[in-house]
Amino acid sequence: MRVAQALCVVSLFACGPAEPAPAGSEVSAAPAAPAAPGSAAAELVPEKLDVKAEPAIYDVEADGQALFDQALTRAREQNRRVLVTIGGNWCVWCHKLHMLFRRDPAIGARLERSFVELKLDTVAHESLVARLAPDPKDGVPYLFVLAPTGEVLARQETGSLELGPRHDPAKVLAFLDAHAGA
Description:
Elements: H1 3-15, H2 41-44, H3 64-78, E1 81-87, H4 92-103, H5 105-114, E2 115-121, H6 126-132, E3 142-146, E4 152-157, E5 162-163, E6 166-167, H7 169-178
Helix pairs in contact: 4-5, 5-7
């Protein structure tokens, strides 16, 4: 079974069936501004989420290798690491993690200081995902931390970063802090 298919099959249990992404979706390697300080985790990410109503977070039309090369170039120029998130626009947990990245002030600040973000769709960027995750068994979203050279420094399934119906900001931040580098 191909890697992307395996990821999709495994992730069906957590995220549901794949849905096509809306046309015109864009991916940005720079994190958005974090939410105002003092927000509680429950206010940052809703318990229930309709992914069809949310903007696409993975650009399924983009050239994955070009995105990868651009992220590594930016990481070298800015002395940062690359945080790769693999998943799909159809995945509820992918959207929840993305929202946490954008809305939690401490996580947003850590991303801004230490990482260049890269989001890869498991199907659209299958060959690239296969190079990063030769034996995916933990579904999506899945995180990788890369050195600016492209070397994989850390792999992280996100199920262990969850707390109830959302990701635990403290666990996510601890992961980011542990792999932020210099």
